[in-house]
């Protein structure tokens, strides 16, 4: 009885003041609406004013091409041992900190510059170093570091005559003897970048000294010219090649993709023969079917040299970009094809691809046996309907951000993918054949010298 009575009074009280309450509500609604509108336009204004300056990568892909949905394949966190968020602490050795390190970065005369080395397919050695120096995951405290990064531009240095093979080997050995933390872990928590098909073989003695270290390389197989491969899938990481910045960052890009119906060729192969059977077969196939398949002779010197823009113009003029094995199993052409929106066809049986835990490559590329290069390949490609090609291109468009070496502020980039992969390599405990420990947790060497008292140079195996 009491409840209805109180409700009745409450209703009457509301009614007796209904006019004033209504006026107040209208004012609040109008004010709230004005605030929402003002906020919207101010946000748009700030986005337009600040957006282009915030990052050169922001305009690399339109919003429809960015990978933000919950079911997107580039979401690393939450499964597969990656953890739910990045919590890395990486120490980056300073070039003045380690004796001999400058040799591996600038050559014997110190004249090779990072600007010269950042270009071309080996630029990842410079880009990863620079991105780590700017990273929020960088620590300047060795004691709290999960991993240690050793900067080296050795592939570029060698190609530009800055060091020969013997000098490279001597420089690496000298560098490693200056690193107590390398000795502490046997190199297990140290990261090295070898950005070419030769991989760690650039350091002739890699099998002795780096056989436990983390190697970042685009190459997963090198057994064609070596007795053994330097790549170990359990400790090393496959990284994307270095695609020209003119296609990944700058706007306007060097070239834009062509609509599928405007493309002249079914397939294209741009590359030198290098005396490789598969490549020679493709060149011969192009001569047999010039209306379907383009394989122009590449000129690297003289007036007929193919420029950067012309190179990508050739790639974009076909539905399929063929990527055969060359001196090694990987090819930069695989990554380049995504930026001209040409479906890559891998003709390299031993190839290893990056980020395979999160990318289903069967949805964005084709892998064809290198032993079956011939008319049957062209017949198969010709049988694929344009609708299917468009679907593969669309899916590739959404993951190609993983081939771009952009800062970690970008939600999708090669650098972020590498950080996630590195997180899986972090160990709670490190040991080596020359590391021992006692009941109180102190770490010693075989002469019972505590780790804090180790002094370079230290003996290596």
Automatic annotation (TrEMBL):
Domain spans labelled Exostosin GT47: 87-373
Record-stated family: Belongs to the glycosyltransferase 47 family.
E.C. designation(s): 2.4.2.41
Organism: Handroanthus impetiginosus
Protein name, entry field: Acetylglucosaminyltransferase EXT1/exostosin 1
GO MF entries: xylogalacturonan beta-1,3-xylosyltransferase activity
InterPro entries from the UniProt entry: Exostosin, Exostosin_GT47
Membrane topology: Single-pass type II membrane protein
Subcellular location: Golgi apparatus membrane
Organism superkingdom: Eukaryota
Gene Ontology CC terms: Golgi membrane
Alphabetized UniProt keyword annotations: Glycosyltransferase, Golgi apparatus, Signal-anchor, Transferase, Transmembrane
């Amino acid at each position: 009885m009491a409840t209805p009575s109180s409700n009745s009074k409450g209703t009457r009280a509301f009614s007796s003041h209904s006019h004033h309450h209504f006026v107040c509500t209208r004012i609040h609604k109008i004010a709230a609406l004005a605030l929402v509108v003002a906020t919207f336009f101010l946000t748009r204004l700030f986005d337009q004013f600040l957006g282009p300056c915030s990052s050169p990568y922001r305009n690399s892909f339109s919003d429809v091409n960015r990978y933000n949905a919950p079911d997107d394949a580039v979401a690393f966190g939450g499964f597969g041992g990656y953890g739910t968020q990045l919590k890395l602490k990486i120490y980056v050795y300073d070039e003045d900190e380690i004796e001999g390190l400058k040799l591996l970065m600038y050559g014997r005369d110190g004249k090779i510059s990072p600007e010269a080395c950042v270009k071309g397919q080996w630029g990842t050695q410079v880009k990863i170093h620079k991105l780590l120096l700017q990273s929020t995951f960088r620590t300047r405290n060795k004691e709290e570091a999960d991993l240690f990064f050793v900067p080296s531009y050795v592939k570029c240095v060698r190609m530009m005559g800055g060091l020969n093979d013997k000098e490279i080997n001597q420089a690496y050995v000298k560098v490693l003897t200056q690193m107590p933390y390398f000795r502490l872990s046997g190199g297990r928590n140290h990261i090295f970048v070898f950005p070419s098909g030769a991989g760690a073989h650039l350091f002739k003695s890699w099998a002795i000294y780096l056989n436990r270290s983390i190697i970042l390389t685009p190459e997963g197989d090198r057994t064609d010219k070596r007795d053994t491969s330097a790549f170990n899938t359990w400790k090393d990481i496959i990284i994307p090649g270095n695609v020209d910045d003119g296609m990944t960052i700058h706007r306007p890009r060097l070239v834009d993709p062509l609509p599928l119906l405007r493309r002249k060729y079914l397939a294209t192969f741009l590359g030198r023969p290098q005396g490789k059977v598969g490549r020679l077969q493709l060149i011969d196939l192009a001569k047999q079917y010039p209306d379907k398949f383009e394989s122009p002779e590449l000129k690297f010197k003289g007036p007929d040299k193919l420029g950067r823009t012309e190179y990508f113009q050739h790639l974009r003029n076909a539905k399929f970009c063929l990527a055969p094995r060359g001196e090694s199993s990987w090819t930069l052409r695989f990554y380049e094809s995504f930026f001209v929106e040409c479906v890559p066809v891998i003709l390299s049986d031993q190839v290893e691809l990056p980020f395979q835990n999160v990318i289903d490559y069967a949805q964005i590329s084709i892998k064809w046996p290198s032993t079956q290069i011939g008319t049957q390949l062209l017949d198969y490609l010709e049988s694929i309907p344009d609708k299917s090609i468009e679907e593969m291109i669309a899916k590739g468009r959404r993951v190609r951000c993983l081939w771009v070496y952009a800062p970690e502020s970008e939600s999708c980039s090669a650098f972020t993918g590498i950080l996630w992969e590195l997180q899986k390599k972090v160990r709670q405990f490190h040991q080596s054949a020359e590391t021992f420990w006692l009941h109180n947790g102190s770490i010693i060497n075989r002469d019972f010298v505590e780790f804090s008292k180790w002094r370079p140079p230290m003996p290596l195996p």
